[in-house]
Predict the structure.
Amino acid sequence: MLLNFVKSFPVLSKSSALAGNCVRTLSATKRCFSTTNTNARQELQLTYLTEDDKQGIAVLGLNRAKARNSFSRSLVDHILESIEVLAHDKNVRVVILRSLVPGIFCAGADLKERATMTQQDVGRFVTKLRLMMSNIEQLPAPVIAAIDGPALGGGLEMALACDMRVVTSNVKLGLVETKLGIIPGAGGTQRLPRILNPAIAKELIFTARQISGEEAKSLGIANYAVKPNEDGDAAFQKALELAMEIVPNGPVGVRMAKKAIDKGLQVDLATGCAIEEACYAQIIPTKDRLEGLKAFAEKRKPKFVGE
């Protein structure tokens, strides 16, 4: 299914003459990554949807086809750059993370590149990979992973860092690292047990078992498991539907709800309630709260501005 996009940019490095030109040209929209690196054009694409009912949705598309979207140094750097931009863009209300490569979501680490690294290089790379996952998790806006192809190893770890996951029913998912004599090193050992019964998470990690999208839904890893379609984007289309349910709601309220939930899950109930109180306090002086009350009284849809 074709979608109408107003802006679509390759995610590229910040240095280069083109960078300055691109920023100046599009400064009014505040929507630009720039570089002259042609490899980056093939690896990652950040798109902003512009149809009326989709405004506020940003789509981050993995596009490293030759390596099944595996994490190279370059791809990780570009994802980190894109996340930094999205984190400071108040116009973005929902982010969808997807693959633009048919038949794969993400195969995890680029093992060919990994084989060329020293032990010190491996440690530094995994640290950066872990940072990338945390930055995805800590984005202010909700993040939905649309999984239309296998998500293995670090690919599943990236999906687990998202707020919600939509999968196709026949897709394969798994933390398969123990088959390689290692462990999930980008947050998988921590996030999966927080989503599942820890004993089930241990079973999946210890056995390196791959499960279907349908199984992921029944276990609670995925919010939805949908039937594949001919275009190969059924999970993405469902993720769009979910994002469109979120977009009309107060963006400040949604962001504060995410913060209250995420921070509260890390502490005891009493401290969690205190976090909720602090988040609510930040909403009280906003224009959106007053608009919500006014719209309710006038029996109309609110027009939230994110302030």
Q: What stands out?
A: The chain is about 45% helix and 15% strand. The beta strands are 5-10, 44-49, 57-62, 94-99, 143-147, 151-152, 164-168, 172-174, 211-212, 224-226. The radius of gyration is 20 Å. Residues 119-137 form the longest helix (19 residues).
